[in-house]
Amino acid sequence: MKPDNPNRVPLDVYLSFVSSLSGNRMTLFVGVIVHIATCLAVAAKTQSAVYIPLSIAFLLVFSIRMAIFRRFDQVDKESLSHAGIERWERILVASGACTTALLGFASGYAIFVVHDSFAELACISVTMATMVSVVGRNYGSRFAVDLQTFFCCLPMIVCSLLAMDLYRGLLSIFLIPFWLTTRAMANGVREFLYENVIARREITIIADRFDTALNNMPHGLVMVDAENRIQVVNRKACELLKIGAPERLKDRDLGAVLRYGARYSFMDASQPELILRQLTQVAEGNLSRTLVHFPEGLSLEFSASRRADGGAVLIFEDVSSRVKAEQKIMHMVRFDALTGLPNREYFGQLVQDYLAKHQRKSGPLGFMVLDIDEFKHVNDMRGHVTGDHLLCAIAARIKQASGNAILGRLMGDQFILFFPHAKEPASLDIEIRRVHAAIQGHYEVDELTFLVSLSAGYAILESTAFAMDEWSVKADLALFESKSRFKGGISGFEREMDGRYIEQQKLKADLREAVSAQALHLVFQPMFRADGSRIECAEALARWVHPEKGSIPPDVFIRLAEDMGIISDITRFVLFKACSECMNWPDHIAVSVNLSARDLRDADILKVVADALAHSGLDAARLHLEVTESCLIDEPAAVRAILAELRARGITIAIDDFGTGFSSLSYLDTLPLDIVKIDRSFVRNIVEDTRRLKLLRGTVHLARELGLKIVIEGVETEEQLALLNKHRSTDLVQGYVFSQPVPSQNIPLLQQGIGRRPVQRRRNKVA
């Protein structure tokens, strides 16, 4: 690498070379003293007057060079351009050349004019010594070396040749290789220094980059030698371990540094040895990485690798956020987000862990399921936010009352408890009933007071007989038994419950088979005008006659179908069958079909209804679809959209059992309705109870103000019918006062016999 052309030399390197021309000023001071002393000595020896002015010239040139150096020192080096540096190089080289020119003249004059051996020896020796010093002082500029050696040697060569002395002439010619050698030496020094400057510059850049990367990396890094002494440590490592500044840790023992950190920072006293021990295992390949938890929520993950020289590189990072996120995710997976109790899966794991830990222990274990009675009404009346707050309050009280029992949230408004080993079943039974009694009562939530009762079912068995699924079924059976008796009760599992459960499961299987084989049949309860003059519609009602048990009540098998998820299959069967049967009736009679909550959970019901109408050929205006409030609770917006689409197709929409819920009035205005079917509970005792009659009339008035048609269900007596007609409280009547549910073929017959009904009714009165 030869920096012959300054234009190819980096600017900062070129400036450093030029700056070297003004360095080593003490040698210049010593040199000018030697020069002046030599000239004065030669003048005294030879009586030559020329050397006196030369002494003065040396002093003058030295003074000028010092002034130039001071001026150069004052220049802002960083603002110098390449041309500016080059100009200063010429000035400095020229000032140095003046000194060598004077030396060359003094030597040449001594050879050619003075002819004194002392003068020649003194002047030539000083000149040759100066030429050697050129290598040390002016290596930074090839131009300076060439010019100064030229001015030193040329006068001596010329004057030696002019002296016409053969031997002096030969000796002077030898100055040429000396000149070239000096020039080559200076160039070699310059090239060597140039390469080193460039290399150092690159190393500095690399070191700066490495240092920047090292100290800005998100990981902590510590490099130790074979004796575990720190060689390299970055700022992040010092910050994470709180062990001081990096520059103070060089060559310190890592263990001692960690122990110091344990003494004066947040680290536990046992952690330094733990870290070193685990790092040794990681470095030896026994562990891929290790996670160390520190106080203040700090978690560091370490990895290490051995170096060829026996040392190791330790890298670690702050994974506190990741650990917290994993813990949060794990908590979300294991615990219920609302109550903070273990969910069903984690509850089962906790129970299994307990049993594995106490597998040698014997004694009875308890398993209880709790169900909040009528919790749906809280959500309906007070909103889900208040309902959630009540759930949390109940969960907190159960947790407080359950002692050492394992508690979990089963689903919705159900909780599950596992009672550990007891001495005897009787004491465990008492404990379970104590917990159940403790959680009943009043709860203060959102400035409201709720009287809460919880039904409970439990099972007590020996630990050797424990099986989670079986116990859960047994507790559920006991809970079902408890809820069937009275709210807020508690029942323990008894063996005969298994028989009832098996019977219910068989009934479900038979129902599934009956639905699949379309073994259900329909009856229809007509809806008459209030004066009994005409049948306007007939409600389709599904019936199931079991081959062994006989007729199964609709409320039984419909509830089973909803639990089994096959209620939509029954709806499809009823729709197709009812539409087909309606085609056999007089054209003015419509058919009404009930839809369940499951039917309205998606838009598939639209296609089912369309297919039923297309298959039967029934006009959409003759189809009525009835929905209850329970259909509207989960997804009211989606249900509203489906009902609006059905109504847009010409189908009549009715709300059934109106008045049995807690927010019925709001549905009248928000849902696309045509008919309101008022529940039979409004009609009961209206003859005797004037307040109930007023409530009925008010509800009817509100519905009519909204343009809705009124159907009264459950009208059983002539007195009820007469009172309804007196106050014009209904448009249609559905009840035993006119007809009970009948087969499809009876509907036309009933319509035909309407004209004779009043006569028959009068005859009955007379009789």
From TrEMBL:
<feature type="domain" description="GGDEF">
    <location>
        <begin position="363"/>
        <end position="495"/>
    </location>
</feature>
<dbReference type="InterPro" id="IPR000014">
    <property type="entry name" value="PAS"/>
</dbReference>
<keyword id="KW-0472">Membrane</keyword>
<feature type="transmembrane region" description="Helical">
    <location>
        <begin position="26"/>
        <end position="44"/>
    </location>
</feature>
<feature type="transmembrane region" description="Helical">
    <location>
        <begin position="118"/>
        <end position="136"/>
    </location>
</feature>
<dbReference type="InterPro" id="IPR029787">
    <property type="entry name" value="Nucleotide_cyclase"/>
</dbReference>
<dbReference type="Pfam" id="PF00563">
    <property type="entry name" value="EAL"/>
</dbReference>
<feature type="domain" description="EAL">
    <location>
        <begin position="504"/>
        <end position="755"/>
    </location>
</feature>
<keyword id="KW-1133">Transmembrane helix</keyword>
<dbReference type="Pfam" id="PF00990">
    <property type="entry name" value="GGDEF"/>
</dbReference>
<dbReference type="InterPro" id="IPR043128">
    <property type="entry name" value="Rev_trsase/Diguanyl_cyclase"/>
</dbReference>
<dbReference type="InterPro" id="IPR035965">
    <property type="entry name" value="PAS-like_dom_sf"/>
</dbReference>
<dbReference type="Pfam" id="PF12860">
    <property type="entry name" value="PAS_7"/>
</dbReference>
<feature type="transmembrane region" description="Helical">
    <location>
        <begin position="143"/>
        <end position="163"/>
    </location>
</feature>
<dbReference type="InterPro" id="IPR001633">
    <property type="entry name" value="EAL_dom"/>
</dbReference>
<keyword id="KW-0812">Transmembrane</keyword>
<feature type="transmembrane region" description="Helical">
    <location>
        <begin position="50"/>
        <end position="70"/>
    </location>
</feature>
<feature type="transmembrane region" description="Helical">
    <location>
        <begin position="91"/>
        <end position="112"/>
    </location>
</feature>
<dbReference type="InterPro" id="IPR035919">
    <property type="entry name" value="EAL_sf"/>
</dbReference>
<protein>
    <submittedName>
        <fullName>Diguanylate cyclase/phosphodiesterase with PAS/PAC sensor(S)</fullName>
    </submittedName>
</protein>
<dbReference type="InterPro" id="IPR000160">
    <property type="entry name" value="GGDEF_dom"/>
</dbReference>
<dbReference type="InterPro" id="IPR052155">
    <property type="entry name" value="Biofilm_reg_signaling"/>
</dbReference>
